[in-house]
């Protein structure tokens, strides 16, 4: 499979602040690639570097086989972070405006249908809900039928229904062969959509891989969380390993088939509980695991630092 | 698809956006009326003993027009750039075929349209108020168009430097107000200190005021002023286009 995007050793500083440090990645054609990280991790700087609106201090980028400023602009779509188009225009007028900037744009009606705005197409942007506004912005990024689509935090600030609708749209685009490079700080979004996930922390890429592979490698096992007033020793008397966490007691490595057995033992011992929650490892566990390792390596004297909180 | 289509798309959007901001429309076209209402009334007193309005109305027509071709493009282009930056619109446009020169051309066209309308209002009201003590000239059109191009270019430079809508307003006022009084619009050079007079030639507005006055009031040749203004239009349009943000 050919690479739609490659970045080799990208570094970018703003004064004393390191925005990107030696970032290298490759995005296969037709993949959905999610760049995950907290606010301030460097996601937007990386998108700007890949789209050619920011020049890196070091490193090289190719987009669709060329440098970002040489690639034909009809082939790229971009939804910048916090993008606001002219507000007193309707969705139809906005799509028509951006369509007018390209040689061979998609029909406006088709894009309105794709983003689910056929019935509100004459409403001014400023009078649309936050989710509808974001869908207009995604529509603008799609108007030139790009081969490569950059979406910088496309679902930030929109409600769950709007988010689901955009996820569905992104999935359809990828199914049709569009390469999608999206940034998000929602781990669930990356896990749902992405073929490849890159975890960015403080300007450095921590890990890149398929979500399932990353979870398998770094996410730990499934576990059963018990909210109870009983002690650790009372639970251990059931004959299982128990860990204490910030939120209660946790029995690690519990397969779904074992849950019934544990519940039976709890009842037999007369141990009552508020809640029992069985959890699979997620990308969030991977991110926390990897970023805490990074920070531990850099700052061995401060083991209690919360990596996500600090980098935000 | 040519650059003309892209400029048309950008200009059409800018024009529509302008018309839908009622306050902007009201003050853009109300400003010339206020201007003529205040100064026109003073001129109407027809003073004879010198002072600020010691000349007939026709002498001040270039001044009224100069205020419009100066203030409107400076503040409008500067504000547009600030607004586009705040909405990350330039980052988006950088990934479209529209380039910086085309963007400025589109917004300059919109300003030309607005300022021609505002100028027509000023001339019409002056005609009503003062009873026609000036003559129209076909040269008014190129003078107004070229002056708008010049000040759109300077507006783009201000927008790039000021970086916010508040900053643009302050900066454009700071640039425009001195130019109004130091460019042979309402104040003649003999009312200024002798040491300052050479600086008058540095203001682009001087060539607009001189040329329009020659064409509409003194009935003299305005060719040299038109040429200077055309050269300045090319220079400032180029600088302005370069200043329009595209990459960080």
Series of H and E elements of chain A: EEEHEEHHHEHEHEEHEHEEHEHH
Mean pLDDT of chain A: 85
Average pLDDT of chain B, to the nearest integer?
Answer: 88
Shape of chain B: globular
SSE class of chain A = alpha/beta
Largest pleated sheet of chain B: none
Strand content of chain B: under 5%
At CATH's second level, what is the architecture of the largest domain in chain A?
3-Layer(aba) Sandwich
The CATH C-level class name of the largest domain in chain A: Alpha Beta
What is the fold-level CATH name, i.e. the topology of the largest domain in chain A? Rossmann fold
Derived from helix and strand composition plus strand pairing, the structural class of chain B reads mainly alpha
Note poorly predicted spans of chain A. Answer: 293-312
Domain module count of chain A: 2
- The CATH homologous superfamily of the largest domain in chain A: P-loop containing nucleotide triphosphate hydrolases
Q: Compute the number of strand runs of chain B.
A: 0
Q: What are the segments of chain B in which pLDDT stays under 50 over at least 5 consecutive residues? A: none
Oligomer: heterodimer
List keywords for this structure.
heterodimer, A: 312 residues, alpha/beta, Rossmann fold, Alpha-Beta Plaits, 2 domains, 6-stranded mixed beta sheet, 4-stranded antiparallel beta sheet, 13 strands, globular, disordered C terminus, B: 248 residues, mainly alpha, 75% helix
Overview of the structural elements:
- The complex is a heterodimer of chains A (312) and B (248).
- In chain A, 35% of the residues lie in helices and 26% in strands.
- With 312 residues, chain A is α/β, with parallel strands linked by helices.
- Chain A folds into 2 domains: 3-216, Rossmann fold (3-Layer(aba) Sandwich); 221-279, Alpha-Beta Plaits (2-Layer Sandwich).
- A 6-stranded mixed sheet of chain A has the order 5-6-7-3-8-9, sandwiched between helices. In chain A, strands 11-12-10-13 form a 4-stranded antiparallel sheet, with no helix packed on it. Chain A has a 3-stranded antiparallel sheet with strand order 2-1-4, covered by helices on one side.
- In chain A, helix 5 (160-175) links the parallel strand 6 and strand 7 (179-184).
- Chain A starts with a strand and ends with a helix.
- Chain B is globular.
- Chain B has 10 helices and no strands.
- The model of chain B has no long low-confidence stretch (mean pLDDT 88).
- Chain B has 248 residues and is mainly alpha-helical.
- Chain B has one domain (3-243).
- The interface between A and B is medium-sized, with 34 and 27 residues.
């Amino acid at each position: 499979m050919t690479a739609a995007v490659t970045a080799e050793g990208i570094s970018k500083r703003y004064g004393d602040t390191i925005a990107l440090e030696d970032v290298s990645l490759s995005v296969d054609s037709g993949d959905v690639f999610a760049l995950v990280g907290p606010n301030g991790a460097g996601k937007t700087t990386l998108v700007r570097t890949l789209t050619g609106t920011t020049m890196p201090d070091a490193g090289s980028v190719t987009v669709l086989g060329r440098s970002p400023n040489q690639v034909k602009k009809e082939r790229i779509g971009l939804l910048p972070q916090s993008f606001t188009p002219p507000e007193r225009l309707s969705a139809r007028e906005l799509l028509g405006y951006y369509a007018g900037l390209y040689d061979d744009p998609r029909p406006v009606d088709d894009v309105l249908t794709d983003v689910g705005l056929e019935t509100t197409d004459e409403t001014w942007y400023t009078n649309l809900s936050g989710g509808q506004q974001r869908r207009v912005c995604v529509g603008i990024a799609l108007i030139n039928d790009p081969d490569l689509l950059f979406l910088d935090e496309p679902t930030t600030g929109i409600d769950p229904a709007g988010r689901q609708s955009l996820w569905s749209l992104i999935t359809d685009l990828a199914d049709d062969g569009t390469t999608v490079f999206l940034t998000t700080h929602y781990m669930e979004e990356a896990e749902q959509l992405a073929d490849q996930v890159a975890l960015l922390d403080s300007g450095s890429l921590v890990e890149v891989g398929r979500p399932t592979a990353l979870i398998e490698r770094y996410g730990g096992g499934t576990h059963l969380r018990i909210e109870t007033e009983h002690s650790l020793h009372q639970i251990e008397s059931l004959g299982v390993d128990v860990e204490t966490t910030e939120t209660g007691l946790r029995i690690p490595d519990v397969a779904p088939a074992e849950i019934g057995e544990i519940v039976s033992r709890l009842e037999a011992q007369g141990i009552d509980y508020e809640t029992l929650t069985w959890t699979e490892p997620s990308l969030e566990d991977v991110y926390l695991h990897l970023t805490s390792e990074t920070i531990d390596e850099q700052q061995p004297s401060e083991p209690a630092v919360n990596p996500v909180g600090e980098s935000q | 698809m040519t650059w003309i289509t892209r400029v048309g798309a950008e200009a059409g959007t800018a024009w529509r956006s302008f018309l839908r901001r009622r306050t902007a429309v009201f003050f853009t076209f109300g400003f010339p009326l206020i201007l003529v209402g205040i100064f026109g009334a003073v001129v109407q007193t027809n003073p004879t003993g010198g002072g600020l309005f010691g000349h007939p109305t026709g002498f001040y027509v270039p001044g009224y027009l100069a205020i419009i071709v100066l203030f409107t493009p400076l503040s409008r282009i500067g504000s547009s750039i600030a607004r586009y930056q705040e909405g990350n619109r330039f980052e988006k446009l950088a990934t479209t075929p529209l380039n910086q020169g085309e963007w400025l051309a589109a917004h300059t066209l919109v300003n030309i349209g607005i300022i021609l309308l505002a100028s027509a209002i000023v001339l019409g009201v002056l005609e009503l108020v003062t009873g026609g003590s000036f003559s129209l000239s076909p040269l008014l059109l190129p003078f107004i168009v070229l002056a708008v191009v010049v000040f759109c270019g300077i507006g783009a430079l201000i927008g790039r430097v000021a970086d916010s809508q508040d900053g643009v307003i302050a900066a454009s006022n700071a640039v425009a107000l001195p130019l109004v009084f130091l460019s042979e619009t309402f104040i003649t050079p003999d009312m200024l200190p002798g040491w300052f007079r050479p600086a008058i030639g540095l203001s682009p507005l001087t060539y607009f005021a001189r040329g329009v006055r020659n064409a509409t009031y003194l009935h003299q040749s305005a060719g040299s002023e038109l040429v200077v203004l055309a050269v300045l239009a090319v220079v400032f349009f180029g600088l302005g286009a370069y200043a329009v943000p595209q990459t960080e």
